[in-house]
Amino acid sequence: MFITFEGIEGAGKSTAQRLLADHLQNKGYTVCTTREPGGCSLGRRLRAVLLDARTTGLRSKAELFLFLADRAQHVGEVIRPALDEGQIVLCDRYVDSTVAYQGYGRGMDTDQLVAVNNLAIGGLWPHLTLLLDLPPEMGLIRAGQRNKEEGTVISEGRFESESLTFHTRVREGYLERAAGEPDRFAIIDASCPPEDVLLQCVSAVEAKLREFGRVVE
Ligand code: Z5A
What we know:
Elements: E1 2-7, H1 13-26, E2 31-35, H2 41-51, H3 60-84, E3 88-92, H4 95-105, H5 110-121, E4 128-133, H6 136-150, H7 164-180, E5 185-189, H8 194-211
Parallel strand pairs: 1-3, 1-4, 2-3, 4-5
Helix pairs in contact: 1-8, 2-3, 3-5, 4-5, 4-7
């Protein structure tokens, strides 16, 4: 089963992914955790270019194709093989990030974005997308706190420096997508403490596993 985590900066995706992976492993599932950009060796090189605040003047289309190159390689090298082995794949960001950031954030045509993404992923859409939703002001505060704790990293700050209006458009884009595909998306209230976020994720995942006849009690 293929599960993706989506949401704005600082929503708590990486935290929820880690907690959910532990929970599922404790239940006996084999889990593959990965992320975009940077879930494979080519992707790690592309991530360095894409997220570095010193990458200036990158055209929106060039940015798009770098994310798609990362995704196409990642699907072929990591995601599909793990799914073929029967693993549960938990991926931090995927196609919906492109539609939200390059579409709603940068203003590119969302139908075209879905079409080029479909080419990159060879039709491999997630079975479930956990949308961690919270106000952008809150996400940016969390991301700022994390940067303070871990030391601000200029090499990962290109999107963080976008305006609050940009992040607000991205959030609205996500919510619009979720409303359009209610069977795939579960909207998670990410403003609560991590353990409550986990409970909401577990409930959505168990419902999907039940649908697929894969529940381990
Ligand atoms: N991007 C794109 O434009 N197009 C694409 O196709 C793709 C990506 C795939 C990748 O950034 C950037 O690329 C992203 C979109 C763009 N940029 N933005 N914005 P990334 O992968 O480096 O970073 P991120 O995905 O935005 O994640 P993040 O900033 O690392 O945040 P997070 O994973 O959602 O949150 P976290 O690291 O789990 O938590 C952040 C802090 O909050 C940390 O201190 C936690 O301890 C704390 N936290 C977490 N959960 C909670 C709760 N529930 N309560 C309180 N505090 C919490």
